[in-house]
Amino acid sequence: MSSSAEWIARGDKHVAKNYGRYPLVPVRGEGCRLWDADGKAYLDFLAGVAVNNLGHCHPKIVAAIKEQAEKLIHCSNFYHIPAQIELAEILCEHSFGDRVFFCNSGAEANEAAIKLARKYSREKHGENRFEVITALASFHGRTIGTISATGQEKVRVGFEPVVPGFSYVPFGDIEALQKAVSPRCCAIMLEPLQGEGGVNVPPAGYLQQVRELCDRHDLLLIFDEVQVGCGRTGTLFAYQNEGVEPDIMTLAKALAGGPPIGAMVTREEIAESFGPGTHGSTFGGNPLMAAAANAAMKTLMNDGVLDNCLAMGGYLRSRLEELKDRYDFVTEVRGRGLMLGMEMTVEGGDMVVKALQRGLLINCTVGKVLRFVPPLTVTRSEIDEAIEILDGILAEVG
Ligand SMILES: *Cc1c(COP(=O)(O)O)cnc(C)c1O
């Protein structure tokens, strides 16, 4: 068995350098804990960036993968795939949707949404209706199409020319959105609650106003629920918090509780535009990933996980509020369910490193917002443990 230092040295030689990686080599996980190659334990409040919603190696996901792997791992979408059919049924039964396209990641789900919106709009309204309005500080993925959709200059730098047909407005500002609508627009694409952009909750009523704007101009409303879907905010899907239904919803991250899968959910009338041969993905919804996702979705809905998310989300939030009351450089605690951010007037990057050294995994977005997205199965005592570590780190600031 190699040590963490040995793995890091080997990785430095041949693995692409596109990530700024922390010096941590996780080799085993269970629940909210990870262990590194040297046997040290960590409390995981990042959960693979909101992927491991049921904790690491949940027994039901492990069992589903083992069982399916022994039967059939992959077959082509030229054929019918029972596990995929079952997953589509679950997603449609519990959402606004009628049809699901499966892929392997959030970016691919968003690509599918953008392609579908363009095609549907072209068929319904003719040429020259292709523009998608997205929000500043949004994040929609790393493909050429989705960096074009993302309202952050930094993800596009060096990769130009980007895909034309996107415009950006401040998140939460309905007037700016109204002004941005033109005869060229076919859709508005938003995260119902922004993740990478700093855990930004829209003002009350905003999503409803966006829905009405879309209805008025016959625009499709696309919700990117890649991060906030699948229970993260305490409801199965984030749009259900405010009862504002999109026309297209994208999912990925936590859909299978770890294994890679993405999905685009939409209504029948819109789905018509994706006829045979229009779009596809070799691995999309393959038997192994779909079986894992079925187990993850059933566990999420039936094992009290959403209730725990709401209860523990409330508890973590109250503990973070206590820290805010004690440290004047902490300015706001915000979020929903177990997607929480703590904004500070000081940089958070060093705090993330200190937390790692003390056995707590968190991250920092937009420089000054510490983000907490633990497994939805997190316990009170695990939250207490995390707060104690965090308190020690905040106490060392200024
Ligand atoms: C992570 C994320 C994506 C991209 O997902 P990938 O699986 O990395 O392609 C897209 N949208 C949102 C909101 C995300 O958080």
Description:
The protein has 13 helices and 15 strands. The chain has about 400 residues and is an alpha/beta fold. The chain has two domains: about 5-60 and about 305-395, Aspartate Aminotransferase, domain 1 (Alpha-Beta Complex), CATH 3.90.1150.10; about 70-300, Type I PLP-dependent aspartate aminotransferase-like (Major domain) (Aspartate Aminotransferase, domain 2), CATH 3.40.640.10. The protein has a seven-stranded mixed β-sheet, sandwiched between helices. The protein has a four-stranded mixed β-sheet with strand order 1-2-3-13. A four-stranded antiparallel β-sheet has the order 11-12-15-14, covered by helices on one side. α11 runs parallel beside α13 (about 380-395). The longest helix has 22 residues, at about 305-325. The mean pLDDT is about 95. Bound molecules: pyridoxal-5'-phosphate. Pyridoxal-5'-phosphate binds near residues 106, 140, 141 and 252.
Draw up the topology in text.
Layout: H1 4-14, E1 26-30, E2 33-36, E3 41-44, H2 47-50, H3 59-71, H4 82-93, E4 99-103, H5 106-125, E5 131-135, H6 144-149, E6 166-169, H7 174-180, E7 185-190, H8 206-217, E8 220-224, E9 248-251, E10 262-266, H9 268-271, H10 287-302, H11 305-326, E11 330-336, E12 339-344, H12 349-357, E13 360-361, E14 363-365, E15 369-372, H13 380-395
Helix pairs in contact: 3-10, 4-10, 11-13
Keywords for this structure?
15 strands, four-stranded mixed β-sheet, Aspartate Aminotransferase, domain 1, Aspartate Aminotransferase, domain 2, 398 residues, binds pyridoxal-5'-phosphate, alpha/beta, 38% helix
